[in-house]
Amino acid sequence: MFNAIKGILVDRTFDAVRVETVGIEWDIAVPATMVDEFGPIGSETKAFVHLQHREDIMKLFGFPTEHDRSHFLELIRVDGIGPKQALRIMSGIRSDALAEAIETEDIAALERVPGVGKKTAQKIILALKGRLALSAGAGKDGSGADADVIAALVDMGFDRKAVERAVKTAAKTGVPDERELFRVALMSLTGGS
Fold it and tell me: Please, what's the b/e burial string for 132-148 (b: 16 or more CB within 10 A of its CB; e: otherwise)?
């Protein structure tokens, strides 16, 4: 439905930004650690969003990059973690630090996040190990071509580690764009030439 909202940043709080687009002002909940990444008030900004829609609530959650949003979406797939708790987790630990803690099974790092106890930390690690691996091309500019290609190939059913190796190898050959990167990595995974 929505992928991103682009407009003028008109206000921000410690955990939300307000973005105006063609006369509509969107109130978007964001991780506290990422508020500054949307730029100064009055500048053009872009938020990659997720819409929570229930019978009693409609709420937008926003992130400065697709990479950050993908981590949020993975967190809310963990049994017992909803959008509000996922946002609190991402307000307590940066996306890349979260991925590293999960990959290294660093329960102590996750327990330092407010609201995450040992059982929740273990549940997050069990559910997400291997799913949030850091990708070399996931830059803070939101382009993250490598991350997008990796996500697309994993969604097609390929093993994440194999996909990451194939994408990394393909990227080293200097492919010109994301589409070609996808094609070369896919050929590698399927044994094509």
Answer: bbebebbeeebebbbbb
In terms of pTM, does the model score above 0.85? Answer: no
In a domain, 133, yes or no: no
* Rounded-to-integer distance, Cα 68 and Cα 95, Å: 6
pLDDT digits (tens, 9 = 90+) for 169-191: 887 777 667 778 888 888 888 88
Structure token digits, residue 95: 């996306």
User: Rounded to the nearest 5 degrees, what angle is found at the Cα of 138, between the Cα atoms of 59 and 148?
Assistant: 70
Count of structural domains within the chain: 3
Name the residue range of residue 99's domain. Answer: 66-128
CATH code of the domain containing 115: 1.10.150.20
The distance of Cα 83 from the centroid of its chain, to the nearest Å, equals 13
